[in-house]
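Translate sequence into structure tokens.
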Amino acid sequence: MSQPLALFAGLGTFALLAVVLLALGQRFFLVRQLAFPFGVAALAAALHAAGQFDIPQRAEVLAARDWALLFLGLAFVLRLLSLYFVDVYLRGRGVRLPPLLPAAGMFVIYTLTALISLRLTFPGFDVRPLLATSAVTSLVLGLALQPILGNFFAGLVISLEKPFRLNDWIKLGDQEGRVVAITWRTTHLRTRENDYIVIPNSKISDERILNYYYPHPMHLERVRVGASYKDPPYRVRRALLACAAGVPGVLDNPAPDVQMNAFQDSEVLYELRVWTEDVVQAPRIASDLRARIWEEFQRAGITIPFPMRTLEIAPRRRASKDQGDQPPRARLYVAEGNERGQTLELDPAAGATLGRSRTCTLPLGDSQASKEHLRIEWTPEGYLLTDLGSSFGTRLNGQPVTTAHLRPLDRIAVGDTVLVFESDGG
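Result follows.
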């Protein structure tokens, strides 16, 4: 009768203490951190309760209780030292270990401590057969649990190498998302669509890892757009740079840039390159940029070509000199200076005067411009530029000039102001 009572007392004591520890662990952080030593204490109490009954195995039960108490003391001290080293000492110096590494280390330490305390409690106990049996068992289990062990060791490698951390935004193969958890077996990602992806660590070790947050979350976003061959590159470049200003999430430093990527069949391909503060916002930023590009191109009269071929036949010039040549349409575009972005349509009949005076056709705010700096008028040989005796002179394509006939895309410099001559006459 004593043997069933002893078994009931032992199991009842262990179950009661386990329930108490579970309730306390939900309220107190320290109890959760010392859950294993407290579990050993519950085991020692259960063995002590069972040993109070007169049973044939009473001596062995009490000896097991003594081993549990010895193991409890060692485990308690080791766990406190681990908490101090990981959570106080290392964190005080800014070092944060991955959660998997301390857990694996404590498992090895507890195993060695259990074997040592068994040897101390039972001097005649030979651990070599246990180790040999453990080796055979480990081999069998290793073959059976090969996928799980592969994930476990892959998790250890991830914890040590740290190719990514919690809250990093990464790309693994075709999957992309934020790292929300790293366990001993799997890594968890949350995508932009708020989907939850669980990837085995062994799969991660075979994939190329793209970490958008290392060494810095700043990310380069590219938006490509085509423009017509009729639109000069400096106009397209200025319009694209204007689109990047003020878009939420686009950084001013490094500054946005525009590159001309290729000459396509029906368009010139440009690329607007902007730096964003977070790759997570890249799709929204790219969408905002495309919307602004469409609006800015409409305002600037820049054409986004359709995917089609157009056959253009150049009009023939009039053969009769009596009828005279029709002056081609021409304009001045301010590429640099206070008035940059402005366009002046040239009137062949009236001509145009540029200078600081408000009476000029195009007033300039440049301090090196004279009141009436230069004049452009139509002649039978084409549009003629004439410097009106300005103080600092006029430069055409980098060379000082007094008078000169203009050709398409000539650059006229007045101080720091640069104007581009555009003509439809070729």
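Note: Residues 51 and 60 are 9 Å apart (CA to CA).
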